[in-house]
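Hi R.,

Here's the chain you asked about this morning:
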Amino acid sequence: MSALKGKVVLHLTSLFSGGGSAYTMEFHRKCLEYGYDSYVVIRGGNCLWPDGSWRKIKKTRFYCWNKLRRFLFRQVVKHSRIDSKYSMYNLCERFTCHSAKDVLAALPSKPDIIFVHWVSDFANAKVIYDLEKTTGAKIVFLLVDHALYSGGCHYQLDCQGYKEGCRKCPATTSPIVQKGIEKNYHFKKKYLPNRSYIIANKSDEYRLRQSEIYREFRVEKLVYPFDELRFCPADDRDALRERWSVPVDAKVVLAGASQLNEPRKGMDLLTKALQLMDEEDVAVLLAGTGVLYGVTKNVRLLGRLNEQQLIEAYQIADVFVCPTIADAGPMMVQQALMCGTPVVAFPVGVSAEMVKTSETGYLAEYANPADLAKGMEQILSLSKEDWQKMSDCCRGMAVRLFSNQTKGHTIDDLICKLTDSE
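And here is the predicted structure, written out as tokens:
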């Protein structure tokens, strides 16, 4: 237990379901395990207390007015052409339907630390500013995408506008929407607390440092642990493959995403890579919602998997392929490594740090399907002995860096450090 037991931790999130929600709830559970009074406030007016009960929170007195403003702006957006590849979820950033006062009214006491998770359409920069000003709590942003330093998009991809005010956003040709995006950017620049902390991987930290908004913020390291007892190699891969109706001698490629057809997930690049491969005995397993266009041979759509099914999918795979071109994670890379499954990926998010060619998989040239295919072929051509060596390396690195056995940079360490710096 933490020596600071009794400190109040608040989590803010927009998500009630899905992977992001599971991450927040696991984070909350870890805080409770360490002995903190942890609360989760979710968009829509619900607050989860440490005892597992839910409490309703009030709407801001400006709720109706802001809801109208959001509606009117969305009508403009609705009739404007928006490029979906940028994931423009934050266009109504300035018009929140909750206030800091309403959030705090759901808690029995002021929080000491506030973790800001995925908060689109919920807690904007002004709400976070008011929370910090009212409570004096340390604000910690968990960088789950790139929305924190943009005027509306969640992934900038090739756009460099976040460096200089998001002027003339390439996601739309509408002058009204472009102006709204620019206003969102300066809204954040005005209100986001300067004393905030950000949890980010190295590649995202590099981008952060180039933003006008976040250049002076302090970046902290945090190890989010995965349970090495749940995510682990299979005792008998052959038996597991038989249960999944996968040929024991097949070369199995696993890929996945919550939404397979989301452009940034790069499934079109995976399609091109698979088309370049001449492997008759390759079985492709796809986890997630959607389809993979252009490849029908030996492809099996698994749909949305629960945790145990996903673990088994990692365990029977020879390689996990992550073709994403914009991501702050993804968690699937760490989960695969923990299960001893080599990973082929582009240098994006955690892959840039954890995927080592010839050690834990293959790090392909960014957005290059030919190199992605080369990486898959390299791992699939390994002898049983060499594959097992790579699998052991994956597992060993994962247990060392992000398991429950990992020492340092834990949630408890972070809270203690920030609290002690008061």
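One quick note: The mean pLDDT is 90.

Cheers,
M.
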